[in-house]
């Protein structure tokens, strides 16, 4: 494991609704090292993207309140100036977005979009930048980089566009790459290629990668460490081995249970009852997962859930994991 | 590119034929004929009949139609009953007047609207934005003819800063004197109309900017470390101007249409005023010619919009 790259302590990201602020990310703490892929998993609406945007400073601070600490390479990012972020983004941190069809400017040629990163972070000559752009396009596995460089995004497939977005993200060899559901919008064969590409880039650049996804298959395939988020909180955290082999939190176990499996073909697929509560309806005390497992007695939950560490490096929120179990494929 | 334009022009041919048929049929439905106006109690009925035969009014409709079309191709739209002059000569002089006034108005409209829309979108939800939106709703709510009359009364009559009508003063001579006099006559109607024509451009630009701000591609640009100012000019603004560009084709062809209100209130001798006068005087040959011209202009307007779009938006570029 490499040196520590990013440390988040007690991070709260709150959105303004009317006059009140609501926590979309609630007391999240995590760490990522160089050469590590950290996966953040959870359903839609549980704060994964909000967390990522807090790290890279993409929230509109007029409507968002961020408190806590985000330490990146000895710099505090909470409260950092926009200029500081402009300087960090693109050069030390890169971000890959979910929808490659929407993430590129339709009016600019590929070359101009990739080169824009170099324009603001290097003072290379135009010819050198051109060479770097072509090399990057080649590195992300695009055939005929010269041709692609001259094309517009609409002339390319989704997979190719995602490769271009990756090329943009890695142009300045950032230490940290945040990939926000990089494969969600792509079909399965392309997904595998893109994940391979991310892994090979990491091997070359020794970057730390935060991989946000709701696809547990992707996690098992790619990640070293896993953070499971539910309703803005980290409910479980551990190595990929720990999470997949002995998941603890009822939410993690339900998630794993709801993956379709070949040997159970024909069985009813397990589904978690209910949905993630909306921001305004978020319960403020008690276990947030309790309403979705109503058969677990109230006494099994902690009044104010705390992190437990039943084995080294494996953390779980609340005590309800001790009571929750599956019998004959049904949660009891 | 040229092929596309050529193809579009070819498609326009059947459209123009349909348009001309419609105009012709409508003209035929209108009561009266070119000689109705010159009938006096002394008119000899047989002589009138002979004149009508000579004019081809008893020919089958298709012969008349073909005759009309052939004449049109030779630039002959007939004679205005009202002015006793060839229609083209009547329209010609006024078209120039209208063109200048409209050009002045359109340029002024964009000069006012684009900065307003841009500021409102960029500083969304601030007092500046609210102020601009207020201006926009007020100008949208005021009827043009009321605004023009009040403006004319205030600046033309009470303050006397600008002439209250006409397109050029009789005493103006020399190229510069003439140009200045024309411009001077255009300022009041042009500015007043431009102030009230900004609504849709401001609104479109503002909502496009607000919309584009939240696009993923803007987040990508920010994630590259592009400073906010550049994110706005290179990414948000360029994409937000697309719908404005799409409208530009129409407004350019609208230049010749003229505004009936403005020209009537400012007694400005242009196409709009001519159209209105021709209708009230049943000057059919002028009306049909004007309707034809407006129709063809509208078709060219869509073509022009397509060309502008294909220049500014690579997704529309056709090979």
Automatic annotation (TrEMBL), chain A:
Membrane-traversing stretches: none
GO cellular component: plasma membrane
Entry keyword ATP-binding: yes
Subcellular location: Cell membrane
Gene3D superfamilies from the UniProt entry: P-loop containing nucleotide triphosphate hydrolases (3.40.50.300)
Keywords of the record: ATP-binding, Cell membrane, Membrane, Nucleotide-binding, Transport
The ABC transporter domain, residue ranges: 6-256
Membrane topology listed for this record: Peripheral membrane protein
Keyword Iron in record: no
A Gene Ontology molecular function term of the record: ATP hydrolysis activity
Source organism, top-level taxon: Bacteria
Any single biological process term in GO: peptide transport
Chief location bin: membrane
Pfam families according to UniProt: ABC_tran, oligo_HPY
Recorded family membership: Belongs to the ABC transporter superfamily.
Protein name per Swiss-Prot or TrEMBL: Oligopeptide transport ATP-binding protein OppD
Taxonomic lineage: Bacteria, Bacillati, Bacillota, Bacilli, Lactobacillales
UniProtKB/TrEMBL annotation, chain B:
InterPro entries (UniProt xref): BPD_transp_1_N, MetI-like, MetI-like_sf
CDD domains: TM_PBP2
Keywords: Cell membrane, Membrane, Transmembrane, Transmembrane helix, Transport
A GO biological-process term: transmembrane transport
GO cellular component: plasma membrane
Family: Belongs to the binding-protein-dependent transport system permease family.
Protein name: Oligopeptide transport system permease protein OppB
């Amino acid at each position: 494991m490499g040196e520590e790259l990013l440390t988040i302590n007690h991070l709260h990201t709150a959105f303004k609704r009317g006059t009140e602020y609501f926590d979309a990310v609630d007391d999240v703490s995590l760490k990522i090292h160089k050469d590590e892929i950290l996966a953040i998993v959870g359903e839609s609406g549980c704060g994964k993207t909000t967390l990522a945007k807090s790290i890279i400073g993409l929230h509109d601070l007029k409507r968002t309140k961020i408190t806590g600490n985000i330490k990146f390479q000895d710099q505090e990012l909470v409260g950092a100036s926009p200029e500081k972020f402009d300087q960090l983004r693109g050069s030390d941190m890169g971000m890959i977005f979910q929808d490659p069809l929407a993430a590129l400017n339709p009016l600019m040629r590929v070359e101009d979009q990739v080169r824009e990163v170099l324009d603001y972070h290097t003072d290379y000559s135009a010819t050198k930048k051109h060479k770097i752009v072509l090399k990057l396009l080649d590195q992300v596995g695009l055939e005929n980089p010269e041709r692609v460089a001259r094309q517009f995004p609409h002339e390319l497939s989704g997979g190719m566009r995602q490769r271009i977005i990756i090329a943009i993200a890695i142009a300045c060899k950032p230490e940290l790459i945040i990939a926000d559901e990089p494969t969600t919008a792509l079909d399965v064969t392309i997904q595998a290629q893109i994940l391979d590409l991310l892994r090979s880039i990491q091997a070359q650049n020794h970057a730390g990668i935060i991989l946000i996804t709701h696809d547990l298959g992707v996690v098992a395939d790619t990640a070293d460490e896993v953070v499971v988020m539910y309703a803005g909180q980290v409910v479980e955290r551990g190595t990929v081995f720990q999470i997949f082999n002995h998941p603890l939190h009822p939410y993690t176990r339900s998630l794993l249970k709801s993956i379709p499996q070949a040997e159970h073909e024909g069985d009813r697929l397990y589904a978690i009852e209910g949905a993630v509560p909306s921001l305004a309806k978020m319960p403020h005390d008690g276990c947030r997962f309790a309403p979705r497992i109503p058969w677990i007695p109230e006494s099994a939950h902690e009044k104010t859930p705390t992190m437990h560490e039943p084995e080294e490096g494996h953390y779980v929120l609340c005590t309800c994991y001790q009571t929750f179990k599956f019998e004959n494929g049904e949660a009891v | 590119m040229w092929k596309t334009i050529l193809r579009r022009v070819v498609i326009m041919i059947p459209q123009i034929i349909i348009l001309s048929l419609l105009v012709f049929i409508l003209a035929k439905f209108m009561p009266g004929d070119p000689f109705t106006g010159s009938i006096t109690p002394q008119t000899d009925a047989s002589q009138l009949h002979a004149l009508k035969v000579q004019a081809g009014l008893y020919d089958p409709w298709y012969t008349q139609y073909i005759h009309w079309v052939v004449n049109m191709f030779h630039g002959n739209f007939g004679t205005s009953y009202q002015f006793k002059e060839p229609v083209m000569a009547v329209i010609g002089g006024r078209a120039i007047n209208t063109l200048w006034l409209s050009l002045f108005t359109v340029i002024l409209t964009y000069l006012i609207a684009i900065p307003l829309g841009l500021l409102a979108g960029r500083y969304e939800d601030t007092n500046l934005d609210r102020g601009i939106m207020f201006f926009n709703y007020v100008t949208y709510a005021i009827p043009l003819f009321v605004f023009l009359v009040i403006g004319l009364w205030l600046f033309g009559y009470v303050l006397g800063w600008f002439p209250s009508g006409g397109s050029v003063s009789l005493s103006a001579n020399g190229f510069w004197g003439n140009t200045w006099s024309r411009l001077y006559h255009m300022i009041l109607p042009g500015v007043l109309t431009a102030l009230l024509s900004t609504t849709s451009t401001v609104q479109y630009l503002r909502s496009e900017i607000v919309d584009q701000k939240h696009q993923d591609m803007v987040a990508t640009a920010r994630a590259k470390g592009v400073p906010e100012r550049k994110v706005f000019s290179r990414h948000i603004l360029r994409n937000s101007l697309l719908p404005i560009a799409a409208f530009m084709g129409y407004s350019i062809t609208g230049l010749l249409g003229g505004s009936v209100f403005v020209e009537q209130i400012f007694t400005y001798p242009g196409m709009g005023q001519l159209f209105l006068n021709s209708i009230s005087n049943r000057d059919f040959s002028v009306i049909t010619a004007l309707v034809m011209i407006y129709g063809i202009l509208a078709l060219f307007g869509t073509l022009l919009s397509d060309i502008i779009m294909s220049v500014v938006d690579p997704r529309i570029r056709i090979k």
